């Protein structure tokens, strides 16, 4: 299978055993039911319910890859970092 370069898209990786539980409570779709090689559309919503970011979720072992528009990449990563426990 070939590889396509899509400069208008970017990927954020959420890694580790807690990736799925972390995202399960944050995004609009079921992350826990995401199977290997499966993709799902989801969104990150504001507390008022407005869509902030729309993206595709991909399961990659324990990791979850988030495919979003390249211009949203840094803002999405920053927003997810707000919810991360240190």
Rg from alpha-carbon coordinates: 13 Å
Largest sheet: 4 strands, antiparallel
User: How far apart, in Å, are the first and last alpha carbons?
Assistant: 39 Å
Kindly estimate the percentage of residues that lie in beta strands according to DSSP.
25-35%
User: Largest sheet, order of strands side by side?
Assistant: 1-4-3-2
Structural class comes to alpha+beta
Helix content: 10-25%
Mean pLDDT: 92
Low-confidence stretches: none
Count of extended strands? 4
Write the H/E string, N to C: EHEEEH
**Count of DSSP H/I helices:** 2
**What is the general shape?**
globular
Would you write up a description of this structure?
With 86 residues, this protein is α+β, with helices and mostly antiparallel strands. It contains 2 helices and 4 strands. It has helices at residues 19-24, 73-83, and strands at residues 9-14, 39-45, 51-60, 63-69. The longest helix is centred in the last third of the chain and has 11 residues, at 73-83. The mean pLDDT is 92.
């Amino acid at each position: 299978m070939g590889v396509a370069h899509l400069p208008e898209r970017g990927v954020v990786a959420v890694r580790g055993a807690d990736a799925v539980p972390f995202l399960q409570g944050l995004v609009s779709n079921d992350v826990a039911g995401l199977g290997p090689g499966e993709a799902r559309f989801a969104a990150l919503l504001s507390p008022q319910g407005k869509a902030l970011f729309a993206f595709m979720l991909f399961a990659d072992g324990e990791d979850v890859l988030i495919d979003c528009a390249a211009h949203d990449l840094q803002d999405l990563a920053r927003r997810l970092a707000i919810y991360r426990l240190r």
